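This section describes the prediction task in plain terms. A model, or a person checking by hand, is given the sequence of a single protein chain and must write out its three-dimensional structure as a string of tokens. No templates, partner chains or ligands are provided. The sample shown here is typical of the held-out split.
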Amino acid sequence: MLTNVLQDTRDVIRGLRRRPGFAVAMIATLATSIGFNAAVFTVVKAALFDGLPLVENSSAVVHVTTNKAAVYYPDFEAWRAESKTFEDLALTRGTFMTFDTTGLAPKTLFATEVTANAFGLLGTRPMLGRDFLPADQQRGAEPVVLLRHDLWVSEFGGNPGIVGGKIRLNGVPTTVIGVMPEGFSFPEEQRLWTPLVPTAAALNRETYYARYAVGRLSAGATLESARAELATISRRLASEYPQTNRDLAPVITPFNTWLLGSGGPALYWLLLGAVTLVLLIGCANAANLLLGRAIGRLRDTAIRYALGAGVRRIVRQLVIECLLVSILGGALGWWLARAALRVYVSTQADTQVTRVLIFTMDATVIAYVLAISVGAGLLASLGAAARLTKLDVNVAVKGHGAAGDGHSTQRASSFLVGAQMALALALLANAGVMIHSFLNLSTADIGVKLESVLTASLYVPPETYPTATAQIEFYGLLHANLQALPQVEAVGFAQVAPTERVNRSTYGLANSSIVGDYSGPTVAQIAVTPGYFEAVGSTLLAGRDFNDFDRPQTEPVVIVNERFAEQTWPGRGAVGERLRVFQNGEPDDWRTVVGVVSDIVQNDATRQAFEPLIYVPHRQRPSPNMFMFARARGDQAQLMSAISREVYRLDPNLPVPALMPLAERLQRASAFDRNFTGLLLVFGAFALSLAATGLYAAVSRTVINRTREIGIRVAIGASRAHLWRFIFDLAKWPLACGLGLGIVGALALGQIAQTALVGVSPADPLAFASAACALVLAAVLGCVLPARRAMRIDATNALKHD
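The expected answer:
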């Protein structure tokens, strides 16, 4: 048996050498399909199955927060002490820190404060040095830090001697105790980690201290049991601390799901489904090519039958030929996948997920490529093998074309082409839906004028600016200096950038039943400086803007947006009304509304809704973290340099801010959606080209095999219009099949990504109609060349055609 297989393999190789065109077409088709599939499988595997890199059993790691996206430190301690469904819980607190090794050029880095047990919970150890100890997070302990691997390489050249050395964080000498393994990043894209040392205010429930905790489920515990247990603990805490905990509820999510975002998993599944369709289209195309080759060799095959060759050997040679070609296609596809993966990672460089996950084409991916290569070869060979087993030897030996391209063969070819068209339509329609969704996202009116606006995130460390007065003075001086620049039309500062998340607080109204204790309605609150609204292009609708006289010692004031004013005081002016916000259950001062501004989108990543907002003066609610917004007058590059100089003049130890246009910042926030939509469009276009090529091959083969019939039609006076209709009739049924089944497939595929769509239905009529038109156009183009060939057939020569 083995000898026969080896002999058949040698015969197949000789045959492929004699006719390399077929082999090249098959290999190119399968290599591209397999390459796309392998690259996307690698991405999906990293995002949905591998979990956090270098984290032990990361599927058991969960994200724990509350319905207010904030955690009290005592609540965390209670969860950790009383929970039985968690092996352990660790608290994390993201922050920005100034990082300095020379004393001359500090940088701002994204960092995280973690409890000492965090890396033990994850099962990750430093590659150099030691982990945090409980003593490190005690108040008064020596400051220590762990570095991420890439920071260690870029700043210290990978020198192991840095362990035990000193760097400056927020201006404070800090000992480097270790370096984390290469590829490790937790919980997001932090560059370094320090021990979390709770403040007195945090211990006394005077402030939300962190946004979330991280937990590892115990063996046998489930998300449901953990949720039920923490809910029980939280009810007890609510009864003991009603002012702070009455309305708090724990929220537990698989950590990977939180990292990818609510719609992220659905998009990755859609992407995997899309490339699976591309692979099936490639297999159908290869099967059509193989069927055409088998038909062209039917007479030779029939002679071999007549000379005693068995059906098993004929089919075995066909399968070996197809497997050999598909495995070669898989090998080439592997290299294409590696290149495609590099392109993917580079185009997704602005997304958080790409910076956290590791995309590795490991042994699992190799096995996957081998499996789909073999599967594609077997699938592609089925049609031709079935055709050969039904061969009529007597007819085939006589060489009649009908033997090669009878009705059953035409039906098989039409079925394959129709399947390609259906799959292509499903892909194109969903690509159109995603394009529509992305356009809704990227062109949404967010309430600001993006033209000529620069932005940067600034952070003044509490070690250098320990008091509210110091923070107010710094931002006040910087605001005045920037406003005096000739390149600046307007400048202002705000706690957050447009569209980004803002915590909500309960509020109360004067002379109203809305008293605003811990059970009242909520509103998002943002601290801003004078000039912010003008800088971002928001319109003052009533009253006044904040000014330099809105200080801590003066009357507390507030500006509300149009949505809040309409909902709260419908039919009457908001200016002069009074409200107060409850911070952690404690009432703030009563504030007088001095202005109403147009709406700006916050707390909505889809950018589709304006929610009620209130703005307070930064001088009356200072913050060390602020975003700068400057509207340029003239050259933006000159303004960037001028702003950097002004920051350096005020404090040479502060890092120079990373300035960028506000439009670019918003584009980065939607980079994943944009790149994902582009990938779907590429796959759809490739699928459409394969479908058009498959139709062209099928129609061309029919024209060649029916040359005699076409010659007879010409001889008896068939017009050119008649021949055009004859050719296009060959594409009618595959096209109809593609349109019908494709729409059904598109609807099914679209349900996967429904949660990730923005303002569009999975059955978007415009996207479906556009995809259908593209498919019809591809079918027409696939018929044009065969039709032109039919027009050139000479009746006399055609009648002699065998």
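For orientation: The two ends are 39 Å apart (CA to CA).
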